[in-house]
Amino acid sequence: MIPTLTFDIETVPDVAGLRLLRDTPSQWSDAEVAEAAFAARREATGSDFLPLHLHRVVAISVALRERDSFRVWSLGEPGDAEGELIQRFFDGVERYTPQLVSWNGGGFDLPVLHYRGLVHGVRAARYWDLGEDDRDFRYSNYIGRYHTRHVDLMDLLAKYQPRASAPLDELARLVGLPGKIGMEGSRVWQAWQEERIEEIRAYCEADVANTHLLFQRFRLMRGHIDHEGWQRECALVRETLARLPGSQWREFLDQWPEP
């Protein structure tokens, strides 16, 4: 079994980029710069969701499943620069050549990592290989929407129809998983301003755990594992999370009763 690397990112407005690109008074605070951008976006589109290139990555969490082990963690340290976090992610792809798994990674996480990686001069040769260096990548690479080196589970389950997509939290809870733990994505900016980066990382890690388990459930549906295999995957995750520090994992396990 090739390694699988499930991932998720959390972002805040790129205030420095907004100051560079928008005509904002120099005395404005970061919060005022961001709020002006939100207001302009709402007026233009009806939503305050900023364009992807103006999202700053503040957390990347991953779950690595290889051989007989399962691990989940956030890359780097809380104070690491954005470029360093992104480089660590692509270094992991370089090292393991894993199957990437995400929830809306094709629509959000990876495009953000592309843009921000470009800004910071990140190197990601293995990730961007389309078959020039490895012939196997010609027909299955990380970039092709319908290839399986990256499985955007939300996109795939919706049969690539945006109207059919489901929220991670709701589908996870329907399956019997805990769903969102700690906060919601809309609260990340406030938490960042309050310097609660550890809470952001914990929230991101819980999303990764939910996504990993949904992917195992998908493998059950595909026939790649049987019901006993599904139970073994759940047991492995439970045993791993029970050993980890962090209140999010106690809450996660409390909301995920054993069958």
Fold and architecture overview:
The chain has 259 residues and is of the alpha/beta class. The protein is 47% helix and 14% strand. The chain contains 10 helices and 5 strands. Strands 3-2-1-4-5 form a 5-stranded mixed β-sheet, with helices on both faces. A hairpin with a 2-residue loop joins β2 (55-66) and β3 (69-74). α8 (197-222) packs antiparallel against α9. The radius of gyration is 19 Å and the shape is globular. The two termini are 27 Å apart. The mean pLDDT is 96.
Question: What would a concise description of this structure say?
Answer:
The chain has 259 residues and is α/β, with parallel strands linked by helices. It is built from ten helices and five strands, in the order E-H-H-E-E-H-E-H-E-H-H-H-H-H-H. It has a five-stranded mixed beta sheet with strand order 3-2-1-4-5, sandwiched between helices.
If you compute it from the alpha carbons, what radius of gyration comes out, rounded to the nearest whole angstrom? 19 Å
How many strand segments? 5
Helical stretch tally:
10
Distance from first to last alpha carbon: 27 Å
Topology:
Blueprint: E1 4-13, H1 15-21, H2 30-45, E2 55-66, E3 69-74, H3 82-96, E4 99-102, H4 105-120, E5 150-152, H5 153-157, H6 168-175, H7 188-193, H8 197-222, H9 227-242, H10 247-254
Parallel strand pairs: 1-4, 4-5
Antiparallel strand pairs: 1-2, 2-3
Helix pairs in contact: 3-4, 6-8, 8-9
